C-alpha cells in the first residue's frame, strides 16, 4: 500500500455531510470530502472517488462471530441478532449501514 501524501489545505472545516454539501453550494469552499455521493444527484455536483474505505466490525476476540475465516470477510447476515453500536444518523456513513 503506498504511503499517503500529506496535503495542506488553506481552509478546513469539520461538518456533517449535509452541511458539507450546503457549504459547497453556498460557495463558501471550493470542494468537500464526503462518504455517500448519492445525495449529490439532486444538486448537480461532480464527484470522484478518492478513497475506498472498508467498514469493519470491532468486537472482543472471544466473541462468537470471530472464527478462522481464511481471508473471507464477515457477512452482514452473520451479525443478525447481535447487539451493536452504530455511527450516529448525522454520519454520512450511517445510511450505507442501514441499507443492510
What do you see in this structure?
The protein is largely without helices or strands and 100 residues long. The protein has 2 domains: 1-53, no CATH class; 54-100, no CATH class. It is 14% helix and 0% strand. It has 2 helices and no strands. The longest helix has 9 residues, at 17-25. The radius of gyration is 18 Å and the shape is elongated. The relative contact order is 0.15. The model has no long low-confidence stretch (mean pLDDT 76).
Describe the SSE topology.
Layout: H1 17-25, H2 94-98
What features would you highlight for this structure?
2 domains; little secondary structure; 100 residues; 2 helices
- Total strand count, please? 0
Gyration radius from CA atoms, angstroms? 18 Å
Average pLDDT value?
76
Tally of helical segments: 2
Low-confidence stretches: none
Condensed summary:
Helices cover 14% and strands 0% of the residues. The protein is mostly loops and 100 residues long.
Amino acid at each position: 500500500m503506498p504511503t499517503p501524501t500529506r496535503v495542506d489545505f488553506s481552509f478546513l472545516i469539520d461538518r456533517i455531510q449535509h452541511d458539507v454539501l450546503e457549504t459547497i453550494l453556498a460557495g463558501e469552499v471550493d470542494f468537500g470530502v464526503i462518504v455517500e455521493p448519492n445525495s449529490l444527484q439532486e444538486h448537480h455536483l461532480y464527484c470522484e472517488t478518492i478513497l475506498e474505505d472498508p467498514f469493519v466490525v470491532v468486537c472482543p476476540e472471544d466473541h462468537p462471530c470471530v472464527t478462522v475465516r481464511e481471508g473471507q470477510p464477515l457477512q452482514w447476515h452473520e451479525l443478525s441478532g447481535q447487539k451493536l453500536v452504530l455511527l450516529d444518523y448525522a454520519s454520512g456513513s450511517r445510511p450505507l449501514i442501514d441499507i443492510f
